[in-house]
Amino acid sequence: xxxxxxxxxxxxxxxxxxxxxxxxxxxxxxxxxxxxxxxxxxxxxxxxxxxxxxxxxxxxxxxxxxxxxxxxxxxxxxxxxxxxxxxxxxxxxxxxxxxxxxxxxxxxxxxxxxxxxxxxxxxxxxxxxxxxxxxxxxxxxxxxxxxxxxxxxxxxxxxxxxxxxxxxxxxxxxxxxxxxxxxxxxxxxxxxxxxxxxxxxxxxxxxxxxxxxxxxxxxxxxxxxxxxxxxxxxxxxxxxxxxxxxxxxxxxxxxxxxxxxxxxxxxxxxxxxxxxxxxxxxxxxxxxxxxxx
Length: 293
Hints:
The protein has helices at 108-116, 131-146, 154-172, 184-199, 206-212, 217-228, 232-250, 255-261, 267-278, 282-292, and strands at residues 20-25, 44-52, 54-59, 63-67, 71-74, 80-84, 89-96, 123-126. The chain is α+β, with helices and mostly antiparallel strands and 293 residues long. Strand 3 and strand 4 (63-67) form a beta hairpin. The chain starts with 19 loop residues before the first strand and ends with a helix. Mean pLDDT is 88; it is low at 1-7 and 30-35.
């Protein structure tokens, strides 16, 4: 959930135990700014638990509200974003899908991969509607407790619970064995989003969007509307603002240079767009972020 649309990186991916927890409490996290909601994906299995309030999880196929005491699962490479209010408090638990496995040639790895690959089960909301989901939520609550008090043999505790969660999904969730290829709207939207990630600082036209998805302009607009209920251009603006916010937080680059670097050639338009998105001017935002550190 960091940074870009984008293949987001797990900051612990190179470590021996690449488990990562991201906590968002009342509008603040250390890893990203919740004023922006860009779509992203990653190599990790992701479990999410809501401790307070409600959030929305959007994929290219679903938009689901997750309430207090509920959670969800997201498989590897599933494009998604999380939207929350300043009254929400939730946790993300991430672990690289390709490393959540047993010894080589262990047949259990096939069952684990069926859940984690993001193909047979891209996304699954967890409520208290069934017994097995309540067991899954109890496991997520235990992972939450580990953020407050780390037990002895911490990696073992975490892996046992992650694998138990995977087993519950493998046993009870509706897996789509041999799932058909993505529909054309989803595929085109992914191609456009990848194009935006690579070219957001450039001048981009609707024709560029359409060519990136190998379709007509009307098909391009239709695909984006069906998948994300917005237009490619509106998403491009939000993506540029996300990149600008990142630079404002992490660098002392002059604001005018940041505007130009992310694709805003009119400084006044950048300032108006940024304030409309965040409620602050770029200067106010940078100052507020510095004070929050």
